[in-house]
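We store amino acids, tokens; thus:
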Amino acid sequence: MALKFNVDFDPRYGEAVEIAPDVLRLTAPNPSPFTFHGTNSYIVGRDSLAVIDPGPEDDAHLGALLKAIAGRPVSHIFVSHTHRDHSPLAAHLKAETGATVLAEGPHRPAKPSVGGKAGVLDASGDIDFRPDRTLADGEIVKGEGWAIETVLTPGHAANHAAFALKGTGILFSADHVMGWATTIVGPPDGNMADYMRSLDKLIARGDRLLLPGHGGPVTTPQTFMRGLKTHRKMRERAVLERVRKGDRTIRAMVEAIYRDTDPRLHAAAGLSVLAHLEDLVERGVVETDGMPAIDGIYRPAA
């Protein structure tokens, strides 16, 4: 079955959209080839609130969030990961509301060291972010009328977390699963083996509705996530095939594999290829000199 994406999405900038009982979505006005129409922030609760992923530095979005909050107390701000389209506004929202900021932890690479510079995501890490409280896998935070469970999902970022709204079957999947496109998994922030393990973890959960960090809801999560898994396996085979056919550089592989993709996305595609190669090198299928790097030379394992 082909993986079907849903690009039918109206961001309705500045407007709070109710997408489930006591769940509002506001989309930040930061559209790009990487963020689709913008970053989704979510407000959970009725009388006392939680905010999930406040978003990027943007005064208009902060104003829209505060308008939707409408003077109600905000007890917690959850941050899924520390890319600059998700976490920077947390400090400003905390200053306005006094809420506690929670996340898995500060920004960090997926591995202690990665050869070379990855490129496109280098500037995206919010290295100044520090949560007031760190979250463990399975930890449940309760507010007035809601309870949110942390589901750690490293892969897109080392500190990536999804958040389950207990008793509803709703999972805020952030950037791990999105209905409009596949997720960028690129070193140094991301790791493909971690991503695949986290995908299996979410498939096993059986949630009924995913609310992602960009784009609209994923309404058939199990089918869609199995499609994502198949897609990743096919992409891995394509990378390995290019190596076996003599492609030695990531640039050559991207030009062959992503020839029908918007050239503006080729840098991100290169990171995805690097993530697959990193995994293939760790498994002993592909060889390179030193650590896998964006500018490395690759060959089939002897």
